[in-house]
Write a structure and sequence with these properties.
The structure is a homodimer.
Chain A lengths: L1 H10 L7 E7 L13 H20 L2 E7 L2 H13 L9 H26 L6 E3 L3 E4 L11 E7 L1 H9 L3 E5 L2 E6 L4 E4 L2 H9 L3 E4 L5 E6 L3 E4 L6 H11 L4 E6 L4 E3 L7 E3 L1 E3 H9 L8 H13 L4 E6 L3 H5 L5 E4 L1
Parallel strand pairs in A: 1-2, 1-12, 2-9, 3-9, 4-10, 12-16, 15-17
Antiparallel strand pairs in A: 4-8, 5-7, 6-7, 10-11, 13-14, 16-17
Chain lengths: ~325, ~325
């Protein structure tokens, strides 16, 4: 009996030796402020951001890299609209899928090269990923998120005929789409299996293609965008990650950001963060969803969230910078 | 000692219960002759082609779906060129990666829906896939493969300035790129692991992004295209598939194709097929690479190759149609 017990303990317990983390890269990781999005800059930036991830892997972490796609999907939408008279424009979901292919390829190649250079033998692959939303999410009937490039009035008219809602801003017209709350990541179970197999996964580009469960049909795409950090949090739950690292364009989270009284947060508890969140310290379009993702993750059993700059990932993990949030 | 032997047999032998197959879908699977490539037709066609694959899975096969991308990457190249003055055009490798995202998403969603409808609980995911080529492949210095749309003379000039070689055909100018021989699939080991985990994988869209091993650097992309069927064969070797099914726009392989004497092949041995291949029965641009893939696969330990029409996959597997090639 003892032998059987021991045997079962060794052989039927899922072996997950390494600590698991999600590293969520902001849109500025691959296209920096002022760059035009050409491929050479994007590859250079991808190589740069890979170094932090290699350090983490060397330190014993099993990593899923998620990433934004703002600049890339913006360029793809613009290409689709400019060429609309010569080839049928694709809907937003397809453009997001294209950006997952493009960015996934870059990260997969650069990260594998960097790992090899560091003498680490690990497999890396990018997955096409869908985010499940609730068909009754009120956000779906209230498009609020401006995406992609600025268009002229006549182009805006054409896009409106395609079914897009358009909004006028100071620099021109933009597409506005709903941003529903992600409920789950369709490929979550697969990603967990792959991590348990020690594979490094790139997933959830642009927050994933939003899909809903259509009765008698199955999954169906929807014209919307998903917040990448809220989606990354759902994935972190699905894979039982202990760390969610959100890398963006600021080194720390601030109270009273962009005011003379702005105050960086170094270490903060979940309880205090929730209070500041409720008090409205974190704007909806930028730090808000990141802080909400942090709150959800820690409330669902996650151990730690770090928010820092894309160039400071490894430094933040060592405790040298970043905002560190724990229960 | 007997106990240890038994224990090892149970626990250290890879458990691969299901037979493994590669199903390689031709470019006509998702965009049919005469269609303009709009997304609604593409989804309809994807649902249609999914039914054969569901039948196979129901029959006990573990499947990797590979696919062409001719119409899709053609549209992406055209969009890139048309919008070149407003956003930097991407190189061919990136356009292929975008097409993998787009097509992978469609197949992944439609196939998962079809499986669910059939009451089969299986996980499906599309992977970004690279094909390794040899830097010294003579094909690399001899671009022969015309790809993508027809351009005007002035557009051809711009593309030439981007570094593309252009060729004049009767309908206009086209990009010509090298088509080197794939040596291995970079993600082969990952795909094998996933299959052994009972996951259905979509991979190798457009034959994969061609990469070579650059000394002191790692993998590096190259402006070329890979034949999807030759790449699928390399993947079939990597995953120890027993069946390679190539689905295209004809129901069978023919001798003297498109002549008054054309003769369909129903069942043929490797030896006879090699003879016909040497005799020049299969043109380079169409059936040639498919037959070469068949020959390579059977010579490397594969059991069977079936070549048939994209709408006849399941029917061909049941022996009702198609060309069946065995050792």
């Amino acid at each position: 009996m003892i032998e059987i017990g021991l045997y079962m303990a060794i052989h039927f317990t899922p072996v997950t030796m390494r600590k698991k983390a999600i590293v969520a890269l902001g849109g500025n990781a691959l296209v920096k402020e002022g760059q035009d999005g050409n491929i050479y800059d994007q590859f250079d930036n991808t190589r740069e951001v890979s170094t932090s991830i290699v350090e983490m892997i060397q330190d014993g972490w099993n990593v899923v890299v998620t990433h934004g796609n703002g600049p890339q999907v913006g360029a793809i939408l613009l290409q689709n609209n400019t060429a609309r008279d010569v080839t049928p424009p694709m809907p937003l979901g397809i453009c997001v899928a294209e950006s997952q292919g493009m960015i996934g390829y870059m990260i997969q190649q650069c990260l594998a090269n960097a790992l090899k250079k560091a003498g680490i033998k690990r497999l890396v692959v990018a997955l096409i990923t869908q985010a499940l939303v609730d068909e009754t999410d009120p956000a779906l009937t209230n498009p609020t998120k401006p995406i992609g490039p600025y268009y002229s009035k006549s182009d805006a008219e054409k896009l409106r005929n395609d079914g897009y809602q358009m909004t006028e801003q100071t620099k021109g017209w933009r597409i506005v789409v709903p941003s529903p709350d992600p409920k789950a990541i369709v490929e979550g179970e697969i990603i967990k299996k792959m991590l348990d197999d020690d594979i490094i996964v790139i997933a959830l580009g642009g927050g994933g293609m939003p899909v809903f469960e259509k009765e008698g049909w199955g999954l169906n795409g929807i014209e919307a965008v998903i917040d990448k950090d809220l989606a990354s949090e759902r994935l972190a739950e699905a894979i039982d990650a202990e760390l969610l690292m959100i890398l963006t364009n600021v080194e720390k989270v601030y109270l009273d950001y962009n005011t003379p009284h702005q105050k960086p947060l170094d270490n903060i508890t979940l309880k205090d963060l929730k209070k500041y969140y409720k008090d409205g310290h974190f704007p909806l379009g930028s730090m808000g969803p990141k802080v909400l993702a942090a709150i959800r993750f820690l409330e669902c059993g996650g151990k730690k969230v770090i928010i820092s700059h894309v160039e400071k990932g490894w430094s933040a993990l060592q405790g040298k910078t970043g905002t560190h949030i724990q229960k």
